[in-house]
Amino acid sequence: MKILGHLVFLILLIAVYSQTNRNAKGGSKPSKKVSGTQGGDADQFSPTAEVTPGSNTRTGNTRNAGGAAASGQEGAGGARPAGQQTDNMRLHFLKNTQVTCNDGTAAGFYLKEFRGSRRWLLFLEGGWCCYSKDTCDARYQNIPRLMSSSGWPQTKTGTGILSSQAEENPHWHNANIVFIPYCSSDVWSGTGPAPTPPPRPRQGREKERDRNTNATEYTFMGSLIIREVIKDLIPKGIKQAKVVMLSGTSAGGTGVLLNIERVASQLQELGAETQVRGLVDSGWFLESKNQRSPNCPETVSCTPEDAIKIGLRLWNGVVPDRCRQLYKRGEEWQCFFGHRLYSTLTSPLFVVQWLFDEEQLRVENIYMGAHSLSEEQWQYIRNLGTELKNSLRDVTAVFAPSCLSHTVITKSNWLSFQVKGTSLPRALQCWDRSLEATRNNRTPAKGCPFHLVDACQWPQCNPTCPALVDQATQQELTLVEMLVAMGLDLQRLGLDPQEDADSLTSMVSNGG
Question: Which residue, 59, 60, 172, 236, is most buried by CB atoms nearer than 10 A?
Protein backbone atom coordinates (compact mmCIF):
# COMPACT_ATOMS: atom_id res chain seq x y z
CA MET A 1 0.00 0.00 0.00
CA LYS A 2 2.86 2.32 0.83
CA ILE A 3 4.46 1.49 -2.57
CA LEU A 4 1.17 2.29 -4.35
CA GLY A 5 1.00 5.69 -2.58
CA HIS A 6 4.51 6.54 -3.68
CA LEU A 7 3.63 5.54 -7.25
CA VAL A 8 0.56 7.80 -7.31
CA PHE A 9 2.57 10.71 -5.91
CA LEU A 10 5.26 10.17 -8.58
CA ILE A 11 2.67 10.17 -11.40
CA LEU A 12 1.14 13.41 -10.09
CA LEU A 13 4.58 15.02 -9.88
CA ILE A 14 5.37 14.10 -13.49
CA ALA A 15 2.03 15.51 -14.65
CA VAL A 16 2.63 18.84 -12.88
CA TYR A 17 6.14 19.07 -14.33
CA SER A 18 4.88 18.39 -17.87
CA GLN A 19 2.17 21.05 -17.63
CA THR A 20 4.66 23.59 -16.26
CA ASN A 21 7.07 22.85 -19.08
CA ARG A 22 4.38 23.32 -21.74
CA ASN A 23 3.42 26.67 -20.23
CA ALA A 24 7.04 27.80 -20.23
CA LYS A 25 7.44 26.88 -23.91
CA GLY A 26 4.29 28.74 -24.81
CA GLY A 27 5.33 31.85 -22.90
CA SER A 28 6.95 33.43 -25.95
CA LYS A 29 3.76 33.32 -28.04
CA PRO A 30 2.08 36.42 -26.64
CA SER A 31 5.18 38.54 -27.27
CA LYS A 32 5.40 37.24 -30.83
CA LYS A 33 1.78 38.09 -31.34
CA VAL A 34 2.41 41.64 -30.11
CA SER A 35 5.41 42.07 -32.40
CA GLY A 36 3.42 40.74 -35.32
CA THR A 37 0.49 43.12 -34.84
CA GLN A 38 2.07 46.15 -33.23
CA GLY A 39 0.58 49.36 -34.51
CA GLY A 40 -2.38 47.64 -36.17
CA ASP A 41 -3.08 44.50 -38.14
CA ALA A 42 -2.12 45.96 -41.47
CA ASP A 43 -1.61 42.54 -43.05
CA GLN A 44 -5.16 41.32 -42.60
CA PHE A 45 -6.28 41.95 -46.20
CA SER A 46 -3.08 40.73 -47.85
CA PRO A 47 0.59 40.32 -46.96
CA THR A 48 2.67 43.47 -47.28
CA ALA A 49 6.20 43.10 -48.59
CA GLU A 50 8.62 43.89 -45.81
CA VAL A 51 11.60 46.12 -46.56
CA THR A 52 14.59 46.58 -44.33
CA PRO A 53 14.56 50.19 -43.06
CA GLY A 54 17.05 52.32 -44.93
CA SER A 55 17.37 49.76 -47.70
CA ASN A 56 16.09 49.74 -51.25
CA THR A 57 15.94 45.94 -51.29
CA ARG A 58 12.98 43.79 -50.28
CA THR A 59 13.55 41.10 -47.69
CA GLY A 60 10.77 39.08 -49.26
CA ASN A 61 7.16 38.30 -48.47
CA THR A 62 7.84 35.35 -46.18
CA ARG A 63 7.63 35.74 -42.42
CA ASN A 64 9.71 34.14 -39.69
CA ALA A 65 8.21 31.53 -37.41
CA GLY A 66 7.18 34.14 -34.85
CA GLY A 67 5.34 36.19 -37.48
CA ALA A 68 3.61 33.10 -38.83
CA ALA A 69 2.51 32.15 -35.35
CA ALA A 70 1.15 35.64 -34.81
CA SER A 71 -0.80 35.54 -38.06
CA GLY A 72 -2.16 32.13 -37.18
CA GLN A 73 -3.31 33.21 -33.75
CA GLU A 74 -4.95 36.34 -35.09
CA GLY A 75 -6.75 34.40 -37.82
CA ALA A 76 -7.91 31.70 -35.44
CA GLY A 77 -10.28 34.11 -33.76
CA GLY A 78 -11.75 35.26 -37.06
CA ALA A 79 -11.63 38.76 -38.56
CA ARG A 80 -11.32 41.72 -36.22
CA PRO A 81 -14.74 43.08 -35.25
CA ALA A 82 -15.85 46.21 -37.11
CA GLY A 83 -14.75 49.36 -35.32
CA GLN A 84 -11.98 47.80 -33.22
CA GLN A 85 -8.60 49.47 -33.65
CA THR A 86 -5.26 50.23 -32.02
CA ASP A 87 -3.67 53.56 -31.20
CA ASN A 88 -0.52 53.17 -33.28
CA MET A 89 0.12 53.53 -36.99
CA ARG A 90 2.42 50.87 -38.39
CA LEU A 91 5.18 51.44 -40.95
CA HIS A 92 4.90 49.92 -44.44
CA PHE A 93 7.47 50.42 -47.16
CA LEU A 94 6.34 50.84 -50.77
CA LYS A 95 6.09 47.70 -52.88
CA ASN A 96 7.54 49.62 -55.82
CA THR A 97 11.18 49.88 -54.76
CA GLN A 98 11.99 52.22 -57.65
CA VAL A 99 10.15 55.07 -55.93
CA THR A 100 12.36 56.23 -53.09
CA CYS A 101 13.37 58.94 -50.66
CA ASN A 102 16.03 61.49 -51.63
CA ASP A 103 18.91 59.19 -50.72
CA GLY A 104 17.54 56.05 -52.39
CA THR A 105 16.19 54.47 -49.21
CA ALA A 106 12.69 53.01 -49.36
CA ALA A 107 9.76 55.44 -49.16
CA GLY A 108 6.69 54.34 -47.26
CA PHE A 109 3.72 55.18 -45.08
CA TYR A 110 2.25 54.54 -41.64
CA LEU A 111 -1.21 52.97 -41.48
CA LYS A 112 -3.83 52.61 -38.77
CA GLU A 113 -6.86 50.71 -40.03
CA PHE A 114 -10.32 51.03 -38.59
CA ARG A 115 -12.30 47.95 -39.59
CA GLY A 116 -15.63 48.67 -41.19
CA SER A 117 -14.85 52.34 -41.91
CA ARG A 118 -15.15 53.62 -45.47
CA ARG A 119 -13.47 56.91 -44.64
CA TRP A 120 -9.77 57.42 -45.27
CA LEU A 121 -7.55 60.25 -44.07
CA LEU A 122 -4.20 60.57 -45.87
CA PHE A 123 -1.73 62.99 -44.30
CA LEU A 124 1.29 64.58 -46.02
CA GLU A 125 4.06 65.66 -43.66
CA GLY A 126 5.63 69.11 -44.10
CA GLY A 127 9.18 70.44 -43.92
CA TRP A 128 9.92 72.97 -46.73
CA CYS A 129 12.34 71.77 -49.45
CA CYS A 130 15.83 71.89 -50.92
CA TYR A 131 16.56 73.13 -54.44
CA SER A 132 20.29 72.81 -55.13
CA LYS A 133 23.22 70.58 -54.26
CA ASP A 134 24.30 72.90 -51.44
CA THR A 135 20.85 73.26 -49.87
CA CYS A 136 20.19 69.53 -50.17
CA ASP A 137 23.57 68.60 -48.69
CA ALA A 138 22.90 70.93 -45.75
CA ARG A 139 19.41 69.48 -45.31
CA TYR A 140 20.74 65.91 -45.37
CA GLN A 141 23.33 66.76 -42.74
CA ASN A 142 20.98 68.66 -40.42
CA ILE A 143 17.57 66.96 -40.90
CA PRO A 144 18.27 63.52 -42.43
CA ARG A 145 14.82 62.14 -41.57
CA LEU A 146 13.35 64.49 -44.22
CA MET A 147 15.51 62.86 -46.89
CA SER A 148 15.91 59.26 -45.75
CA SER A 149 13.88 56.48 -44.18
CA SER A 150 16.88 54.90 -42.44
CA GLY A 151 15.85 56.23 -39.02
CA TRP A 152 12.09 55.87 -39.22
CA PRO A 153 10.48 54.10 -36.25
CA GLN A 154 8.28 51.05 -36.82
CA THR A 155 5.20 52.73 -35.34
CA LYS A 156 3.84 56.23 -34.78
CA THR A 157 1.07 57.53 -32.54
CA GLY A 158 -1.17 60.11 -34.15
CA THR A 159 -2.19 63.38 -32.49
CA GLY A 160 -4.86 65.92 -33.37
CA ILE A 161 -6.78 64.83 -36.44
CA LEU A 162 -4.55 61.73 -36.63
CA SER A 163 -5.51 60.57 -33.13
CA SER A 164 -7.57 57.44 -32.58
CA GLN A 165 -9.03 58.90 -29.37
CA ALA A 166 -12.58 60.26 -29.69
CA GLU A 167 -11.92 62.87 -26.99
CA GLU A 168 -9.06 64.36 -29.01
CA ASN A 169 -10.44 63.70 -32.48
CA PRO A 170 -14.25 63.57 -32.30
CA HIS A 171 -15.06 63.23 -36.00
CA TRP A 172 -12.12 61.39 -37.61
CA HIS A 173 -10.91 59.00 -34.88
CA ASN A 174 -12.82 56.14 -36.53
CA ALA A 175 -11.31 56.57 -40.01
CA ASN A 176 -8.49 54.65 -41.66
CA ILE A 177 -5.52 56.96 -41.09
CA VAL A 178 -2.41 57.08 -43.29
CA PHE A 179 0.62 59.20 -42.37
CA ILE A 180 3.01 59.66 -45.31
CA PRO A 181 6.47 60.82 -44.12
CA TYR A 182 8.11 63.58 -46.13
CA CYS A 183 11.45 62.39 -47.51
CA SER A 184 11.50 63.87 -51.02
CA SER A 185 12.25 67.57 -50.26
CA ASP A 186 10.23 68.72 -53.30
CA VAL A 187 6.96 70.01 -51.78
CA TRP A 188 5.45 66.67 -52.91
CA SER A 189 5.82 67.65 -56.58
CA GLY A 190 8.77 65.59 -57.83
CA THR A 191 8.69 62.85 -60.45
CA GLY A 192 12.41 62.16 -60.75
CA PRO A 193 14.54 61.67 -62.78
CA ALA A 194 17.40 59.75 -61.23
CA PRO A 195 20.50 61.84 -60.54
CA THR A 196 23.04 62.28 -63.30
CA PRO A 197 26.83 62.46 -62.86
CA PRO A 198 28.18 65.97 -62.29
CA PRO A 199 28.74 67.51 -65.75
CA ARG A 200 32.05 68.83 -66.96
CA PRO A 201 32.47 72.61 -66.69
CA ARG A 202 30.61 74.35 -69.50
CA GLN A 203 30.03 77.87 -70.67
CA GLY A 204 27.22 80.01 -71.99
CA ARG A 205 24.08 78.22 -73.21
CA GLU A 206 25.47 74.82 -72.31
CA LYS A 207 25.87 75.97 -68.72
CA GLU A 208 22.28 77.26 -68.65
CA ARG A 209 21.01 73.98 -70.13
CA ASP A 210 22.78 71.99 -67.42
CA ARG A 211 20.56 73.66 -64.82
CA ASN A 212 17.68 71.53 -66.10
CA THR A 213 19.44 68.29 -65.14
CA ASN A 214 19.66 66.72 -61.72
CA ALA A 215 23.36 66.98 -60.97
CA THR A 216 22.89 66.17 -57.27
CA GLU A 217 23.17 62.78 -55.62
CA TYR A 218 19.47 62.79 -54.72
CA THR A 219 16.16 61.71 -56.25
CA PHE A 220 12.97 63.75 -55.94
CA MET A 221 9.79 61.67 -56.16
CA GLY A 222 7.21 63.24 -53.85
CA SER A 223 4.28 63.07 -56.28
CA LEU A 224 5.20 59.51 -57.26
CA ILE A 225 5.30 58.47 -53.59
CA ILE A 226 1.68 59.58 -53.17
CA ARG A 227 0.69 57.61 -56.27
CA GLU A 228 2.40 54.45 -55.00
CA VAL A 229 0.84 54.78 -51.53
CA ILE A 230 -2.62 54.81 -53.16
CA LYS A 231 -1.68 51.65 -55.11
CA ASP A 232 -0.49 49.88 -51.97
CA LEU A 233 -3.72 50.78 -50.16
CA ILE A 234 -5.91 49.04 -52.75
CA PRO A 235 -5.70 45.65 -50.96
CA LYS A 236 -6.57 47.49 -47.74
CA GLY A 237 -9.89 48.65 -49.17
CA ILE A 238 -9.35 52.22 -50.35
CA LYS A 239 -11.24 51.45 -53.59
CA GLN A 240 -14.36 50.94 -51.45
CA ALA A 241 -13.90 54.28 -49.69
CA LYS A 242 -16.81 56.69 -49.46
CA VAL A 243 -14.56 59.65 -48.62
CA VAL A 244 -10.81 60.10 -49.03
CA MET A 245 -9.43 63.26 -47.45
CA LEU A 246 -5.93 64.25 -48.52
CA SER A 247 -4.53 66.48 -45.77
CA GLY A 248 -1.21 68.06 -44.90
CA THR A 249 0.57 70.76 -42.93
CA SER A 250 2.94 73.46 -44.21
CA ALA A 251 4.75 72.06 -47.28
CA GLY A 252 2.46 69.05 -46.91
CA GLY A 253 -0.49 71.42 -47.18
CA THR A 254 0.93 72.84 -50.39
CA GLY A 255 1.40 69.24 -51.48
CA VAL A 256 -2.35 68.74 -51.06
CA LEU A 257 -3.01 71.65 -53.42
CA LEU A 258 -0.61 70.19 -55.98
CA ASN A 259 -1.81 66.57 -55.83
CA ILE A 260 -5.51 66.48 -54.94
CA GLU A 261 -6.70 66.41 -58.57
CA ARG A 262 -4.17 63.71 -59.41
CA VAL A 263 -5.32 61.55 -56.49
CA ALA A 264 -8.97 62.01 -57.50
CA SER A 265 -8.15 60.95 -61.08
CA GLN A 266 -6.16 57.93 -59.92
CA LEU A 267 -9.00 56.64 -57.75
CA GLN A 268 -11.52 57.28 -60.50
CA GLU A 269 -9.41 55.27 -62.95
CA LEU A 270 -9.37 52.43 -60.41
CA GLY A 271 -13.18 52.42 -60.46
CA ALA A 272 -13.61 53.87 -56.97
CA GLU A 273 -16.81 55.78 -56.31
CA THR A 274 -15.30 58.03 -53.69
CA GLN A 275 -15.25 61.75 -53.11
CA VAL A 276 -11.71 63.07 -52.71
CA ARG A 277 -11.42 66.13 -50.49
CA GLY A 278 -8.49 68.30 -49.45
CA LEU A 279 -7.50 69.76 -46.08
CA VAL A 280 -4.71 72.34 -46.31
CA ASP A 281 -3.17 73.46 -43.01
CA SER A 282 -0.68 76.35 -43.08
CA GLY A 283 0.22 75.71 -46.71
CA TRP A 284 -1.52 78.78 -48.14
CA PHE A 285 1.43 81.10 -48.62
CA LEU A 286 1.76 84.54 -50.19
CA GLU A 287 4.62 85.67 -52.38
CA SER A 288 7.57 87.27 -50.59
CA LYS A 289 8.05 91.03 -50.42
CA ASN A 290 11.83 90.60 -50.28
CA GLN A 291 13.98 91.35 -53.29
CA ARG A 292 15.74 88.44 -54.94
CA SER A 293 19.24 87.82 -53.69
CA PRO A 294 21.89 88.32 -56.40
CA ASN A 295 23.63 85.18 -55.13
CA CYS A 296 20.62 82.89 -55.55
CA PRO A 297 20.91 79.89 -55.94
CA GLU A 298 24.55 79.76 -54.87
CA THR A 299 23.45 80.56 -51.30
CA VAL A 300 20.46 79.66 -49.14
CA SER A 301 19.15 83.23 -49.36
CA CYS A 302 16.65 82.59 -52.15
CA THR A 303 13.07 83.78 -51.81
CA PRO A 304 10.47 80.98 -51.80
CA GLU A 305 9.50 81.89 -55.36
CA ASP A 306 13.08 81.55 -56.58
CA ALA A 307 13.57 78.34 -54.60
CA ILE A 308 10.51 76.82 -56.29
CA LYS A 309 11.50 78.08 -59.75
CA ILE A 310 14.92 76.47 -59.43
CA GLY A 311 13.59 73.42 -57.61
CA LEU A 312 10.96 72.61 -60.23
CA ARG A 313 13.71 71.90 -62.75
CA LEU A 314 15.75 69.86 -60.28
CA TRP A 315 12.73 67.86 -59.06
CA ASN A 316 11.11 67.43 -62.49
CA GLY A 317 8.15 68.81 -60.57
CA VAL A 318 4.54 68.69 -61.72
CA VAL A 319 1.61 71.01 -61.05
CA PRO A 320 -2.12 70.49 -61.71
CA ASP A 321 -2.90 70.56 -65.45
CA ARG A 322 -5.62 73.21 -65.30
CA CYS A 323 -3.37 75.59 -63.39
CA ARG A 324 -0.37 74.91 -65.63
CA GLN A 325 -2.42 75.94 -68.66
CA LEU A 326 -2.88 79.41 -67.16
CA TYR A 327 0.82 80.20 -67.22
CA LYS A 328 3.48 80.22 -69.88
CA ARG A 329 6.44 77.88 -69.78
CA GLY A 330 8.71 78.72 -66.86
CA GLU A 331 5.91 80.33 -64.86
CA GLU A 332 4.44 77.09 -63.47
CA TRP A 333 5.88 77.97 -60.05
CA GLN A 334 2.86 80.23 -59.53
CA CYS A 335 0.70 77.11 -59.09
CA PHE A 336 2.43 76.50 -55.73
CA PHE A 337 0.48 79.44 -54.29
CA GLY A 338 -3.04 78.59 -53.18
CA HIS A 339 -4.61 81.92 -54.09
CA ARG A 340 -3.50 81.37 -57.72
CA LEU A 341 -4.37 77.67 -57.86
CA TYR A 342 -7.64 77.45 -55.93
CA SER A 343 -10.04 78.50 -58.70
CA THR A 344 -8.72 75.74 -61.00
CA LEU A 345 -9.48 72.88 -58.57
CA THR A 346 -12.61 70.76 -58.90
CA SER A 347 -12.24 68.74 -55.68
CA PRO A 348 -13.66 70.22 -52.43
CA LEU A 349 -11.02 71.97 -50.34
CA PHE A 350 -10.90 73.20 -46.74
CA VAL A 351 -8.17 75.73 -45.90
CA VAL A 352 -6.84 76.22 -42.37
CA GLN A 353 -4.58 79.24 -42.12
CA TRP A 354 -3.32 81.38 -39.25
CA LEU A 355 -3.68 84.99 -40.42
CA PHE A 356 -0.21 85.78 -39.03
CA ASP A 357 1.60 82.61 -40.02
CA GLU A 358 5.06 82.37 -38.44
CA GLU A 359 6.63 80.74 -41.50
CA GLN A 360 5.29 83.51 -43.73
CA LEU A 361 6.93 85.98 -41.34
CA ARG A 362 10.23 84.09 -41.37
CA VAL A 363 10.33 84.47 -45.14
CA GLU A 364 10.54 88.20 -44.45
CA ASN A 365 13.21 87.63 -41.75
CA ILE A 366 10.74 88.35 -38.94
CA TYR A 367 11.15 86.11 -35.90
CA MET A 368 8.67 86.95 -33.17
CA GLY A 369 10.30 86.97 -29.74
CA ALA A 370 13.75 86.18 -31.10
CA HIS A 371 15.25 89.58 -31.98
CA SER A 372 14.40 93.23 -32.41
CA LEU A 373 11.55 94.39 -34.61
CA SER A 374 11.61 97.45 -36.84
CA GLU A 375 8.63 99.70 -37.47
CA GLU A 376 8.57 98.53 -41.09
CA GLN A 377 8.44 94.91 -40.01
CA TRP A 378 5.60 95.65 -37.59
CA GLN A 379 3.71 97.30 -40.42
CA TYR A 380 4.28 94.21 -42.58
CA ILE A 381 2.82 92.05 -39.81
CA ARG A 382 -0.25 94.27 -39.61
CA ASN A 383 -0.72 94.17 -43.38
CA LEU A 384 -0.20 90.40 -43.60
CA GLY A 385 -3.47 89.67 -41.83
CA THR A 386 -5.40 91.83 -44.28
CA GLU A 387 -3.67 90.34 -47.32
CA LEU A 388 -4.34 86.78 -46.18
CA LYS A 389 -7.98 87.60 -45.52
CA ASN A 390 -8.32 89.02 -49.02
CA SER A 391 -6.70 85.93 -50.55
CA LEU A 392 -9.18 83.68 -48.71
CA ARG A 393 -12.28 85.68 -49.62
CA ASP A 394 -13.46 83.26 -52.34
CA VAL A 395 -12.53 80.06 -50.51
CA THR A 396 -15.71 78.16 -49.67
CA ALA A 397 -14.47 76.37 -46.55
CA VAL A 398 -11.90 78.12 -44.37
CA PHE A 399 -10.82 78.45 -40.73
CA ALA A 400 -8.56 81.49 -40.22
CA PRO A 401 -7.82 82.67 -36.65
CA SER A 402 -6.07 86.00 -36.14
CA CYS A 403 -3.08 84.43 -34.40
CA LEU A 404 0.69 84.15 -34.62
CA SER A 405 1.41 80.44 -35.09
CA HIS A 406 2.09 77.72 -37.67
CA THR A 407 0.15 74.46 -38.27
CA VAL A 408 -2.70 73.20 -36.09
CA ILE A 409 -4.45 70.00 -37.22
CA THR A 410 -1.91 67.59 -35.70
CA LYS A 411 -1.64 69.41 -32.37
CA SER A 412 -3.21 67.57 -29.45
CA ASN A 413 -4.93 70.79 -28.31
CA TRP A 414 -6.44 71.60 -31.72
CA LEU A 415 -9.93 71.45 -30.19
CA SER A 416 -9.25 74.59 -28.14
CA PHE A 417 -8.88 77.07 -31.02
CA GLN A 418 -12.03 78.83 -32.17
CA VAL A 419 -13.21 81.43 -34.65
CA LYS A 420 -16.48 83.16 -33.84
CA GLY A 421 -17.29 80.51 -31.25
CA THR A 422 -16.75 77.53 -33.55
CA SER A 423 -13.85 75.07 -33.15
CA LEU A 424 -11.96 73.65 -36.12
CA PRO A 425 -13.23 70.06 -35.67
CA ARG A 426 -16.79 71.43 -35.55
CA ALA A 427 -16.21 73.48 -38.71
CA LEU A 428 -14.86 70.37 -40.48
CA GLN A 429 -17.94 68.43 -39.40
CA CYS A 430 -20.22 71.19 -40.75
CA TRP A 431 -18.32 71.12 -44.05
CA ASP A 432 -18.64 67.33 -44.17
CA ARG A 433 -22.40 67.52 -43.58
CA SER A 434 -22.80 70.18 -46.25
CA LEU A 435 -20.91 68.10 -48.82
CA GLU A 436 -22.97 65.02 -47.98
CA ALA A 437 -26.21 66.98 -48.29
CA THR A 438 -25.14 68.31 -51.68
CA ARG A 439 -24.19 64.82 -52.91
CA ASN A 440 -27.62 63.54 -51.87
CA ASN A 441 -29.52 66.50 -53.35
CA ARG A 442 -30.53 67.81 -49.94
CA THR A 443 -30.44 71.35 -48.59
CA PRO A 444 -27.47 71.83 -46.21
CA ALA A 445 -28.45 72.50 -42.60
CA LYS A 446 -28.32 76.08 -41.38
CA GLY A 447 -26.43 77.22 -38.29
CA CYS A 448 -23.41 75.00 -38.98
CA PRO A 449 -20.67 77.36 -40.28
CA PHE A 450 -17.51 76.42 -42.14
CA HIS A 451 -16.36 79.76 -43.60
CA LEU A 452 -14.76 81.26 -40.52
CA VAL A 453 -12.35 84.19 -40.75
CA ASP A 454 -11.58 86.34 -37.70
CA ALA A 455 -12.99 89.86 -37.95
CA CYS A 456 -10.48 91.52 -35.61
CA GLN A 457 -7.38 93.05 -37.19
CA TRP A 458 -4.59 92.54 -34.66
CA PRO A 459 -2.32 89.54 -34.15
CA GLN A 460 -3.44 87.58 -31.09
CA CYS A 461 -6.79 89.40 -30.87
CA ASN A 462 -8.53 86.01 -30.77
CA PRO A 463 -8.75 84.90 -27.10
CA THR A 464 -8.13 81.25 -28.04
CA CYS A 465 -4.79 81.94 -29.79
CA PRO A 466 -1.73 79.89 -28.76
CA ALA A 467 0.34 81.76 -26.18
CA LEU A 468 3.33 83.83 -27.27
CA VAL A 469 6.61 82.80 -25.64
CA ASP A 470 9.75 84.89 -25.12
CA GLN A 471 12.56 82.87 -26.71
CA ALA A 472 15.11 84.04 -24.15
CA THR A 473 13.14 83.46 -20.95
CA GLN A 474 10.50 80.96 -22.19
CA GLN A 475 7.92 83.09 -20.38
CA GLU A 476 4.46 83.65 -21.83
CA LEU A 477 3.86 87.24 -22.96
CA THR A 478 0.99 89.30 -24.27
CA LEU A 479 1.42 90.82 -27.72
CA VAL A 480 2.07 94.26 -26.25
CA GLU A 481 4.71 92.88 -23.86
CA MET A 482 6.41 91.07 -26.71
CA LEU A 483 6.46 94.15 -28.95
CA VAL A 484 8.02 96.18 -26.13
CA ALA A 485 10.56 93.41 -25.47
CA MET A 486 11.46 93.44 -29.18
CA GLY A 487 12.28 97.15 -28.98
CA LEU A 488 9.25 98.76 -30.58
CA ASP A 489 8.40 102.26 -29.36
CA LEU A 490 4.64 101.91 -29.10
CA GLN A 491 4.05 105.58 -28.38
CA ARG A 492 6.08 106.52 -31.47
CA LEU A 493 3.68 104.37 -33.43
CA GLY A 494 0.76 106.17 -31.81
CA LEU A 495 0.00 103.30 -29.45
CA ASP A 496 -0.15 103.68 -25.70
CA PRO A 497 0.68 100.38 -23.95
CA GLN A 498 -2.15 100.63 -21.43
CA GLU A 499 -4.74 101.97 -23.86
CA ASP A 500 -3.60 99.44 -26.45
CA ALA A 501 -4.12 96.59 -24.02
CA ASP A 502 -7.62 97.89 -23.27
CA SER A 503 -8.46 98.19 -26.97
CA LEU A 504 -7.24 94.67 -27.59
CA THR A 505 -9.47 93.41 -24.81
CA SER A 506 -12.40 95.23 -26.40
CA MET A 507 -11.66 93.78 -29.84
CA VAL A 508 -11.40 90.29 -28.37
CA SER A 509 -14.82 90.51 -26.77
CA ASN A 510 -16.43 91.94 -29.89
CA GLY A 511 -14.66 90.63 -32.96
CA GLY A 512 -12.60 87.46 -32.63
Answer: 172
Active site residue: 92, 406, 454, 500, which one? 406
The answer to whether 406 is a known catalytic residue is: yes
Q: Round to whole Å and give the CA distance between 460 and 508.
A: 9
Question: 271-291: per-residue pLDDT in tens?
Answer: 999 999 999 999 999 998 776
Of 327, 320, 328, 255, the closest CA to residue 285 belongs to 255
Instruction: State how far the Cα of 428 lies from the Cα of 161, in Å rounded to an integer.
Output: 11
Which position among 41, 186, 281, 357 bears the catalytic label? 357
Q: Cβ distance 413 to 406 under 8 Å?
A: no
Residue 357: active-site member: yes
Cis peptide upstream of residue 297 (ω within 30 degrees of 0): yes
Those residues whose C-beta lies under 8 Å from the C-beta of residue 231, and which sit 6 or more positions away, are 95, 96
Using an 8 Å Cβ cutoff, are 394 and 342 in contact? yes
Q: Tell me: the pLDDT tens digits for 99-148?
A: 999 999 999 999 999 999 999 999 999 999 999 999 999 999 999 999 99
User: Interhelix angle for 29-37 vs 65-76, to 10°?
Assistant: 90
Which residue among the candidates 117, 149, 223, 250 is catalytic per the annotation? 250
Cβ burial 96-118 (10 Å sphere, 16+ → b, else e): bbebbbbbbbbbbbbbbbbbebe
Contact 390, 365 (CB under 8 A): no
Beta strand ranges found along 412-455 (DSSP E): 418-419, 422-423, 451-453
Could you report how far apart the first and last alpha carbons of the chain are, in Å? 94
